[in-house]
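User: I'm writing a tutorial on reading structure tokens. Could you give me a worked example: one chain, its sequence, then its tokens, then a sentence or two explaining what the tokens reveal?
Assistant: Sure. Here is the example chain.
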Amino acid sequence: MPNYSPSVLLAAQAKITESFNKGEMRYTDPVVWKLFNEQSDIMIPGYQALKTADNRAVTMYYKTRAARGSSGNRSHNHTGNKASSVAVTPTWTTVGDVWSLDLKQSANNVFEYQEMFNHELKNAIINVINGLNAGSTAVLFAGRTGVNVANLGVGNEFNLINDVFEIRADNNTDWGVFNNRAGSLTEMVMDINNFGSQYDVVCDSVAYSKFKAQASQGAGNDKNLSFNFGGQRYIHAVGLHALAVALDPTYVHGFWIAVPKGSIASLPWIPIENRQGLDTKVQRYSNIINPIDGQMYAYHEYEERTDGSGRGGQVQDERQQKELTIDASLNIEPLSQANATPLHAVAIVPGS
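And here are its predicted structure tokens:
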């Protein structure tokens, strides 16, 4: 079992510096998870108070649109139908990490107990945040619409099998089409489907690098999400390329998803005992604010008697079991039309 035994004090041992350890503790900024978080309170205000337990269901309601033909004349006895509503029940998935420390583990070690704890906590935060971002990217990809009425000429049309609007590159190259039409065609697709120009563009690595090459970098922001180009915000989703190529190998030339403002939202949640802080003398419930995403995470710990001598501790020792978790519900705005969502996937495919 991995432990801190290799760092037990030796005569000439020196402590590794924090800066030297940064490469080992690197992580990818969870930009897609952050994008989901931007609309949390707008989607269901006060949902934290509604969900009081892990197994407590929460239902949200949306009003549907009633499409009707325009009336051709006035009438004294006109009749009509009304719109309706639809119920949606979000589901939560717990994402977390666990670790342990022995109470006396630092007594004969170059690292103090607090240093060990801080390192383990940071490691857990990175593990959880990586999982959340990968999960958010997968949900975004799977949530692409199966309905797209745009048709922009020969080769520039919606693939009903892959649920992706395909832009065909000129002369079997993808660079020219990016320079001339990729951004504008995406905007036309969104406009034709009545979503307008207020959307974010979540790109795979290939598309992001090409869009970035032709656009000036916008002013930096505290979320470090993207640059601005043509009125839209472009976001680099590291895991999106692998998902796109697995769907269709021809999408290797660039793949992105247009996400209308306010169409996705996460509902982060932790148990009320962790929010309030509770010590039962058997176990402790607490919380921390994750500095990477600003969300509140549940922290839980308990102790057990142990012989820690094999892990750098003592024969008469106490092992502390620790856990960091958050429940995440990732939601896409529901539409009443079958197989339709607000998320429109676009890809460059080779020309003839």
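What the tokens reveal: Residues 107 and 313 are 7 Å apart (CA to CA). The first strand starts at residue 60 and ends at 63.
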